[in-house]
Amino acid sequence: MTDSPDAGESRRARRGPARATHRGGATFFSVLGELFITVGVLALLFVAWQLWIGDWIGAAEKNAAGQSISEQWADEFAASASPSPSQTPAATPSSSPTTTPTTKPVVLGEPKDAEVFGVMYIPRFGKDYKVPMAGGVSRPRTLDPIGIGHYPDTPMPGAVGNVALAAHRTTFGKPFNQIAKLHVGDAIVIETKAGWYTYRFRNLEYVKPDAVDVLLPVPQEKGLKADGQYLTMTSCSPMYYKSERIVAYSVFESFTPRADGRPDVLEGVK
Question: For residue 210, with 0-12 CB atoms within 10 Å meaning exposed, 13-18 middle and 19 or more buried, which class applies?
Fold first, then answer.
């Protein structure tokens, strides 16, 4: 027995609204899914920006700032060293020098918070590496916008004791990103208005975040008076985490006055 035309129309009419409701539900969930996918892609792009693209731009900006600071100091020194027309002409080449350059380090006063006082060069990190240094180790004032921070109340470059520094290992240009790749004997040079201070890397150590004894005059030696010149660089470890600190220790090698020009260890560095 076959259905009548009216019966078929009746079944189609009943099925019609059901199919329409099903299509509407599928469209809603597909749009919602696309929104979630879009948000996920945007989140991934933001992470990529923060960890790679933004870091690359940040590092380039900090290196450019270091270059500008170095050039400014060089220009200021050249201007101060240039004789004025009223000054007595310089001695002839045959004249014997009356003074000899000193190699005793010139120790500058401690900078104010966020006050730029130096530029760091580490040839191991690349010929373009030249990061500004400033007083203090707060993120918003020194580490994020400037680069490398100097722990307050620790010695300045060239002084007896422990020059303590901090910088990011990831994000904001990550100045100490390659700290774990240092080799024994690598040069670490700090430039100031006075000249260049060369330190030589000795060893790495991993400590807990509260291990403030690495900042002592003789690192991790309580009550011991310093009789040497040290440099301690600290950063987070492992990368992207803060469960530990990586610490790089170096010892002072020499001071090069600005009048003598850049030290040979920076040959090839821009």
Answer: exposed
